[in-house]
Design goal:
Number of strands of chain A: 4
Strand content of chain A: 15-25%
Helix content of chain A: 40-55%
Oligomer: homodimer
Radius of gyration of chain A: 13 Å
Chain lengths: 95, 95
């Protein structure tokens, strides 16, 4: 179900570290060691398979960036935000 | 040690799937399954740590793109090509 503009802003307000760029949710995660970032990507992949929704991932040495676009044409939905919260939880464990 | 232009072209000719884009070696690797691409990234990370040289990695669903830039200002060296060959070997095992 698509979110209204108000709901979208409310959801982003609750989502640590993420911002909205052209209907895409973006967050950069920084790690103290390269292999910690890679272990985080493994967790992100497992979450992505569970949601059947795969963010665009870039790994630039110790920085991992996730970009999460709406799965349906209808725009970002509550599910995208639930997934982003799970990525944040994985980060809290991995860093 | 920096390679001459002739050596550079000779090395690229021997390197399956890679092309040169503005002094950066680039290859896109395609996988039949998302998790095979992720397992490949784990191998790429291990090789990168061994070389202490980390390519820029993007994961776009089942496509993994590696970008390998010269480590020193002096340009691409034989070592960059040895590393790219190792990535190709890892791909042959992972796909």
């Amino acid at each position: 179900m698509q979110l209204s503009v108000e709901e979208l802003h409310e959801q982003i307000g609750k989502l640590e570290g993420w911002k909205l760029e052209q209907e895409t949710l973006v967050r950069k995660y920084m790690f103290s060691e390269y292999m910690k970032g890679i272990a985080f990507v493994d967790e992100v992949a497992a979450i992505s398979e569970a949601f059947d929704h795969h963010p665009h991932i870039t790994i630039d040495y110790k920085t991992v960036t996730l970009r999460l676009s709406a799965k349906e044409e209808s725009g970002l939905a509550a599910l995208d935000f639930r997934q982003a919260h799970e990525f944040n939880e994985a980060f809290d464990k991995a860093r």
